[in-house]
Every structure is written in C-alpha cells, then in structure tokens.
Specification:
The protein is mainly α. The chain has helices at residues 36-67, 80-105, 122-144, 158-183, 185-194, 196-211, 219-239, 243-259, 282-285, 296-311; strands spanning 29-30, 33-34, 148-153, 274-278. Helices cover 59% and strands 5% of the residues.
C-alpha cells in the first residue's frame, strides 16, 4: 500500500521572480497617452489638410486683394485686409486642428493657451498697454539720437475713425493668430515632451524663420523676432495663458504700423495715423526692416522682461508631466 501524498505549499517567489505587469508604454504611447512628438505630427498633419482643403479659395481671395486697389491698400503696403486674411487663416487652421486634438487627447481647448473665460480681460489690456509703451520707448530712444522724426498727421476726418477701427481689429487677429500658432498647442505639447524652455527656444527660432520671407528683413531683425518669441514665452509661463502675449503683440504692432506709421519687418503701412521718417545708420534706425531691427528693440524687450518678472513671480503654466 503506497503512502498518501502530501500537498505541501510551494515556496513563495522571491521579489526578483514576481511577474511584472505590462506597462502599456511603447514608442507611440507614454504614461499620459500618445507621446508628444506624435501628437505634434498629428496636429501638423491636420493643419496641412485644412490648408489644402481651402487652398484654392484662399488663393483666389489673396489674388483679388493683392492685385486690385481697395480702400485698405494694395500690394505695396501692409493693409488691414491682408493682415486679417493671412493671420485669420493661421488662427482658423491652428485653432481647428487644436480643437480636433483636444477631442483626441480629452482636454479642454483652453488648455492650449487661450481660455475663453480669460478673453480680453485684465491681462490682455495690460499687455496691450505694455506693447504700445515698449515701441514708443524704442522710437523715443531713436529720436533722442536724431534718427526718427514725426512729420504730422497722415490721415484726416472720418478716415481716422475707420482706419483706427480696421487696424485695431487687424492687429488683435494678428496677435491671436501668431501667438496661438507658435505658443499655443505646439508649446503645450512640446513642453510635455522636452520641457518648457527647450520648446520655447525651438519655437522662437521657427517664429523668426517664418518672418525671414518678409521683404527687407535682416539678420538683426530676425534676432529681434527671436527675442520677441522668448519674451512672449515668459508671459505665457508666468501668467498661465497667452492673453498677456496677445495684448503685447497687438499693442506693439498697432503702435508701430498704424500710430507711428513705420515699417513692420520691411512692410510699409497703409492709412497710418502719423507720417514719419528715419535717418542714420541701420543699427540705430533698423534700416529697411524698421525699428524692430534697431539696437533699441532688444533693449526695450529686455527691460520689459525684467520688469514683468519682478511683478509676475509665480510660474502658472502647468501642462501635464512629460509624456
């Protein structure tokens, strides 16, 4: 008769032999879902698709505006109509692409820098005032060295009202379009993948590259564009959204192009408030670019950055942790 078998418990597995569950992460997905690089590529693909879908219509409208005289100007100058068309299209395409990505990522569209609840409130108006004062300070410094002169009003009567309204609306759209395109969804997503300031430097360089096709642009002018981009990123980091940057962008451009009537990245203004002129070396006046390529523009932006940092000390921009 055989002896009964004894069912002894198996010895516990050592900590090194405990099976580990699959992490679920791979080259496409991280702990927070689709990795940042892939999200950027999807976003850019959506933008490209939207651009292609309306390319014919936009070309026809641009062709009409640029080859037919209108109340807002012609090909020889920067006009409100052209500014609204170009930057409005940028805002439309990037905004729609970000809306689609917000559904994919299950986030709010406002997380990407333009929350509607903060629209045109205190930060926007403070930024607008700061932008206008900054371009005024830069031009005053050039004036003090006998490089800039105002030569009286360029428009009169009811044209003042219509031009003011047109340029104001145009530069708000310019601020919204360019800030969201370069510091909205892309800044948010790249921050989750590579950190805030590396993303800011990369996108500021691309911001300058986008301006390199402007007529009369110079290397020093493009350096100033990089400085603008980094300053706008500082506004974003400290306030948590883009409304300060949108206001500053609009205020600077409005003051530069409409109020003082000087060139913007080599583009002459149309229906500007003042007539003005420059005389002197390019390092002082900015040459063909306008005051953005003057030595005083980076200095003005540096002063703004220092003063802003002393008032806004807390970093309020909080995207998700790195994906």
């Amino acid at each position: 008769m055989s002896e009964p078998s004894m069912n002894l418990p198996e010895p516990p597995l050592s900590p090194t032999t405990v099976p580990q569950p699959a992490s679920g992460t791979n080259v496409f997905r991280g702990p927070n879902g689709i990795r940042a690089g892939w999200r950027v590529l999807i976003f850019l693909a959506i933008v490209a698709g939207l651009v292609a879908a309306v390319n014919l219509v936009v070309w026809l409208v641009v062709h009409f505006l640029l080859h037919r005289p209108s109340r807002f100007g012609t090909t020889s100058s920067l006009s409100p109509a052209v500014a609204v068309l170009s930057d409005g299209a940028i805002l439309l395409f990037t905004g729609l692409a970000a809306l689609i990505m917000s559904r994919i990522e299950r986030r709010k569209w406002g997380d990407y820098g333009l929350p509607v609840r903060s629209a045109f409130r205190q930060n926007f108006w403070l930024g607008t005032l700061a932008g206008f004062l900054a371009i005024s300070a830069s031009l005053f410094a050039i004036f003090a060295l006998h490089g800039f002169h105002l030569a009286g009003l360029a428009i009169h009567g009811s044209t003042i009202l219509t031009a003011t309204a047109a340029w104001t609306a145009a530069f708000v759209i310019v601020g919204l379009g360019e800030e969201f395109a370069f510091r909205g969804y892309l800044q948010f997503t790249l921050t989750t993948g590579m950190g805030f300031w590396p993303a800011a430097v990369l996108l500021s360089a691309l911001f300058a590259l986008a301006h390199s096709a402007n007529p009369g642009e110079s290397k020093f002018g493009l350096l100033s564009v990089v400085c603008f981009g980094l300053l706008f990123c500082l506004f974003l980091r400290r306030t948590g959204n883009l409304w300060w940057a949108v206001g500053f962008h609009a205020g600077w451009d409005w003051g530069q192009t409409f109020f003082y009537g000087v060139s913007d990245s080599g583009l002459a203004p149309y229906h500007n408030f003042f007539n003005s002129s420059f005389s002197g070396p390019a390092w002082l006046t900015g040459g063909t670019v306008g005051p953005e390529a003057s030595i005083f523009t980076p200095l003005a932006l540096l002063v703004v950055g220092i003063l802003f940092s002393r008032v806004y000390r807390e970093n309020r921009y909080q995207p998700l942790a790195k994906a």
